[in-house]
Design goal:
heterodimer; A: alpha/beta; 3-stranded mixed beta sheet; 24 helices; elongated; B: mainly alpha; 2 domains; 5 strands; 4% strand; globular
Chain lengths: 639, 492
């Protein structure tokens, strides 16, 4: 089936003309023969299109390349401008046309100069021309299709001009339209409100008539959740620690993969008010050990963010970068931006980096190898995250310990036990087509990454991990940390609510073991943070006052269960954090693991209550984290 | 999800599980049969009765004495008793678990090529044929658990030495904490066990890394020691209550060899004990010989492991736990000796050491039978398997219990009289020291209780308050009977 709905044979038409692009560029005096030889050598080693190689090397600019392409294919080049496009475009030709098809096949019907002719704009001459043109002829009842060349950026601008509202609408509400049950646009469903209301009502009645047993019961539930979570995380840590015994992807495998085997890779970079760090990212991505001509880097900028746009332009990124401006729309969130950028992604694989990220150079290669090694149900691979400014202050040290434990032990443990993995914020590597099938990210979930990992599991797909790290800037200021963490916790609450709308269905799809893992990991974590101040308060009151006031509320079994959790829970919390330093040899951080109980109480719990408040009163608000405030910026350079 | 070699690995795991489960079932039934036979014939190891009584107070005490769950005494030995509600079943199952674990490790070591096939038979023979090991697995719950955890600890230590995997270090640390949670004296092995970590290490290892390794290895034990002292302080107002009460309950302060905190005496006692145990512990000397043959520099762990049982006797003595070094303690030496063979690759060049080891094990087995009469507890246990015993602690306690009517409160100090509470089975009838009203009742028993049971000669609070009770007289009460050290009075 062709893209426009017609059944058609697809003859393969190898292009014989691409080899001439180099000669055209030389004739135009844009490159020298030596440069052409070098580009051909790179093409032989790494594959890819010669024109793109020359562009990414910075020897020609976009306009010059596409003009040369036009000459190569003997096609007219059109200097795009919005005014001219507006004047010439026959919009009736575009009615009922899906923008994603236009983007995918690089053909945009433009106007009919005569009844038998159709002019189309294209930024990829030669690609699918036979298939597409035959289809267009039938659809528009013309005898000839006349392609005009425009640059890829102009092509994107044209698409955005026509379908901006539709793309924005799809980016925001697409998941909701297709699968409302998996969208966090509704925080609580009617059933959940009813059940929560009934539970609250029942508890109040119980509290009124039998306060002792009610409080004992509530406390007992807290202890039960705590015990289960501690045991679960300990088991995960054991499983994750086994990964030390082998490398999922070895350096030898990375060395052996041929550059010509590597497909096009899209990197989405959603940035908002990040002028300080965008330059570092440009440098970091240049260092990626991946053929630059096969990188499709899309910087996603909000309409009102001129500062970051100017900073990005000033950084002079190579030709494989594109800037896509996201139209202003509420919610103004990272997942919405990513969904919008997803329309324009060209790569077979796709990943996301934040503006302050510094990935290890071989990360993309490891992802490609990882996808080959996993079975076809694997839709995403998560790389580890860690911090380059770990030793800046107490907060960054605790944060680094926490992240090291999370990404080096917990997530590998989930992977090893084949349990759902909530994704981290960045460095998630996707198969692009599968990501589109899943519906992209949920713009209403403030931890869209965690949500996507669970959604993949809910569709019977799997997520794995790769042994590669992306370095970020750890929050070094307390309130900045609280803002960031409250967003994450709120997102976990949202995710837990969304995927508990149809628990029986989830159990059927995931299986009981995986469903339970999801409940403990995603739902249990915020609950734990909320419970910690309550239990500590009771304990501190009891230990300092030796009061008997609490005795009626806490029968002996409950007291001792609580004490057991206190001792074992805190012991394991500290001990597992101590283990976390080994894989990355961050031994100087070990003494800080003793502060784990304080970290939980004074950081996580406060963020959790803030998150709970916002869940009810401002569920979609995205707490923007300030970046570029580290005093250890030079360490980022060294990485 | 992870790529796995299915097939072979799965069937290997399945085989291990099957072997373990089968041996667990068989050993459980075997040891339980031994236990119940001995119990019927009036023998039970004191520790089992004490643990059983404490567990009874948890479920049926008034109020439930829940700190016994594990906040006053080392908790792990209570875990199985609380699970099965019966100390004899718990002891049999614990023994079976440990024996099965040992057999599984042995078979695994054989598959790895570390030991010849004959070792499997020898070890099996020792488990079921030696009175020391039979007593260990059937009745010595804490020592048995200690031996099992100690063996696992050695396993992880060897694995860490070989591969430097964090998981093995982590599990080693957890095992050291479990040792304390079974037998608190074991924490004193820690200084000895630090030695391998100090001399181990990769080239150019930073001091930070070495300290980190030490912290992982020993933080758990230190944490739990501190926690237990704290909990004892919270609940009993004495941070070392768990230690003192154990000595008192086992009657150790009355032992002629009580050498609490006396270094020189402890050293002398240790030498004496080793002399007594010498016939049984020959295998450990063969292990030492093997280690020397392999070269001491090759493995820095084995010397420390092999010295540990000797150190444990010394520390036990230094802290007053002297009576436990009967023949059954030799099993710790045997198991340690076995461990050094199980986890260290075999030396094919000197098969004569394998033969020497087998011979030493057989000799040890023989001596455990020929010298059984010299070791009281083991001797009593085996006699009880054949015929009923008379005038034992158990028979005396049972006799007292028979005389008690079903109604009326009983004043008792369960520090000495725990066996009576256990055999009675209804702790709510007793007025015990942990209850608020105990002091009141102790000073005016006529107003509150029908029976008083006094334990002689010392250490009992009732005889401490009413000394004349030791001589058959108690105001307001009539003397009913005396069985062994228990004296029963009834209200007039």
């Amino acid at each position: 089936m062709d893209p426009f709905g017609y059944t058609i044979d697809i003859p393969r038409e190898p292009s014989k003309k691409e080899g001439l692009i180099g000669q055209i560029l030389i004739q135009q005096g844009l490159i020298t023969k030596e440069q052409l030889r070098e580009a051909l050598k790179i093409q032989k080693e790494r594959g890819g299109r010669l024109g793109w190689i020359v562009l990414t090397l910075g020897w020609v600019n976009r306009l010059e390349l596409f003009q040369a392409l036009a000459r190569q294919f003997h096609l007219p080049f059109w200097n795009f401008s919005i005014e001219a496009f507006e004047a010439k475009c026959q919009k009736e030709l575009l009615s009922n046309l899906d923008p994603s098809i236009v983007i995918r096949y690089h053909v945009l019907p433009f106007f009919k100069p005569t009844p038998d002719e159709l002019v189309v704009l294209t930024d990829y001459p030669g690609k699918n021309f036979s298939l597409v043109f035959n289809t267009l002829k039938k659809k528009y009842n013309v005898k000839k299709v006349l392609p005009w060349i425009v640059t890829d950026l102009d092509f994107a601008h044209a698409v955005q001009y026509i379908w901006n509202d539709k793309l924005a609408d799809e980016a925001i509400y697409g998941l909701f339209y297709r699968n409302p049950d998996q969208s966090a646009i509704r925080v609580f469903t009617k059933t959940q409100i009813f059940l929560l209301g009934c539970s609250a009502y029942f508890l109040l009645i119980w509290l009124y008539f039998y306060p002792l047993s009610c409080i004992s019961f509530c406390f007992g539930i807290i202890q039960a959740i705590f015990s289960m979570l501690v045991l679960f995380k300990t088991l995960l840590s054991f499983a994750g620690a086994r990964r030390e015994q082998y490398e999922p992807i070895s350096q030898e495998e990375v060395r052996q993969i041929s550059n010509s085997e590597l497909p096009t890779y899209t990197i989405l970079i959603p940035a908002y008010k990040e002028p300080n760090v965008i330059g570092k990212l440009v440098t970091a991505l240049k260092k990626l050990d991946y053929p630059q001509s096969k990188l499709d880097i899309i910087l996603l900028l909000e309409e009102d963010d001129k500062a970051t746009l100017e900073a990005a332009k000033k950084a002079k990124p190579p030709g494989n970068w594109r800037f896509i401006i996201i139209p202003h729309a509420i919610p103004k969130t990272k997942p919405k931006a990513c969904n919008y950028g997803l329309f324009f992604a060209r790569g077979e694989y796709l990943t996301i980096y934040d503006a302050e990220d510094i990935p290890e150079p071989d990360q993309l290669k490891k992802a490609v190898i990882g996808f080959k090694k996993h079975d076809s149900s694997c839709v995403c691979l998560q790389a580890a995250l860690n911090y380059f400014n770990a030793d800046e202050n107490f907060i960054t040290r605790m944060f680094t310990l926490e992240y090291s434990y999370w990404f080096d032990y917990l997530l590998p443990g989930l992977d090893r036990l084949n349990l759902p993995i909530p994704l981290g914020g960045t460095s998630n590597h996707f198969k692009t087509e599968f990501l589109k099938l899943l519906g992209g990210w949920d713009p209403f979930n403030v931890t869209e990454d965690a949500d996507l990992g669970v959604r993949a599991a809910a569709h019977g797909m799997t997520v794995g991990v790769i042994n590669s790290t992306t370095y970020e800037e750890a929050n070094s200021k307390y309130w900045n940390w609280i803002r960031q963490r409250s967003r994450w916790i709120k997102g976990y609450m949202q995710t837990a609510l969304v995927y508990n709308r149809n628990p029986l269905q989830m159990i059927r799809i995931l299986g009981f073991k995986r469903w339970l893992s999801f409940q403990l990991f995603v739902g249990g974590t915020p609950l734990l943070f909320l419970a910690v101040p309550i239990v500590w308060s009771v304990f501190i009151y009891w230990i300092f006052t030796e009061s008997k006031l609490l005795d009626p509320f806490f029968p002996p079994l409950l007291v001792y269960w609580g004490l057991f959790n206190l001792i074992w829970g805190n012991f394991l919390g500290i001990y597992l954090n101590m283990i976390a330093v080994f894989r990355r040899k961050l031994f100087y951080l070990m003494p800080y693991s003793f502060f784990n109980p304080i970290y939980w109480l004074c950081f996580h719990s406060i963020a959790a209550y803030k998150a709970l408040w916002q869940l009810f009163f401002n569920p979609f608000y995205w707490e923007k984290t300030e970046h570029g405030i580290t005093k250890h910026g030079e360490k980022a350079e060294q990485k | 999800m992870e790529l796995q070699n299915t097939g072979k690995k799965l069937s290997k795991s399945r085989r291990t599980v099957i072997v373990f489960t089968l041996s667990l079932l068989v050993f459980s039934i075997f040891f339980l049969a031994l236990n119940l036979t001995a119990l019927k014939n009036n023998y039970a190891y004191k520790e089992l009765l004490m643990v059983g009584e404490k567990a009874l107070l948890v479920f049926k005490g008034e109020p439930p004495r829940l700190e016994n769950l594990g906040f006053v005494y080392p908790p792990l030995i209570y875990f199985f008793v609380l699970l099965f509600r019966n100390p004899f079943v718990a002891s049999a199952v614990t023994g079976a678990l440990c024996a099965s674990l040992l057999m599984t490790n042995v078979i695994h070591a054989y598959k790895e090529g570390n030991i010849p096939r004959s070792f499997i038979l020898i070890i099996l023979l020792y488990i079921v044929g030696s009175p020391a090991t039979l007593f260990l697995f059937a009745e010595q719950q804490s020592l048995c658990l200690f031996a099992a955890v100690f063996t696992q600890m050695i396993c992880y230590l060897y694995r860490y030495c070989r591969h430097h995997y964090t998981l093995d270090l982590f599990l080693f640390g957890m095992m050291t904490s479990f040792l304390f949670l079974i037998r608190f004296q074991a924490v004193l092995l820690i200084p000895l066990l630090t030695l391998p970590f100090i001399v181990l290490g990769k080239k150019n290892e930073l001091i930070q890394e070495k300290l980190s390794v030490l912290m992982i290895a020993f933080f758990p034990a230190i944490f739990f020691v501190a926690s237990w002292c704290y909990l004892n302080w919270v609940f009993m107002k004495d941070p070392f209550y768990f230690f003192k009460t154990w000595i008192s309950a086992m009657g150790l302060e009355n032992s002629p060899h009580f050498t609490l905190l006396d270094f020189k005496s402890s050293l002398i006692y240790t030498s004496q004990q080793l002399k007594n145990l010498l016939p049984f512990i020959l295998p450990i000397f063969v292990s030492m010989l093997r280690r020397i043959r392999l070269g001491l520099k090759k493995c820095k762990v084995s010397p420390v492991i092999l010295i540990s049982p000797f150190a444990l006797i010394f520390w036990d003595s230094f802290f007053g736990v002297t009576h436990e070094h009967s023949m059954v303690f030799s099993t710790i030496f045997i198991i340690t000796a076995f461990s050094c063979w199980l986890y260290v690759p075999a030396d094919r060049k000197t098969p004569w050491i394998d033969r020497l080891f087998i011979s030493s094990v057989l000799l040890s087995l023989l001596f455990t039978w020929t010298m059984l009469y010299k070791h009281h507890q083991e001797n009593q246990f085996f006699k009880a398997l054949v015929e009923p015993l008379k005038n034992t602690e158990m028979s005396n306690a049972k006799a007292i219990v028979k005389l008690l009517d079903k109604k009326g409160k009983i004043l008792l100090d369960d520090k000495k009289g725990f066996s009576i509470v256990f055999f009675n089975g209804h702790p709510r009838r007793f007025v015990l020291p942990y209850q608020y009203e105990y002091e009141t009742v102790l000073y005016a028993p006529k107003q509150f209780v029908r029976y008083i049971i006094v334990s002689s000669p010392t250490g009992d609070r009732i005889s401490g308050r009413w000394q004349e009770a030791l001589f058959g007289y108690l105001d307001g009460f009539k003397f009913i009977a005396r069985f062994g050290r228990f004296i029963l009075y009834e209200h007039l």
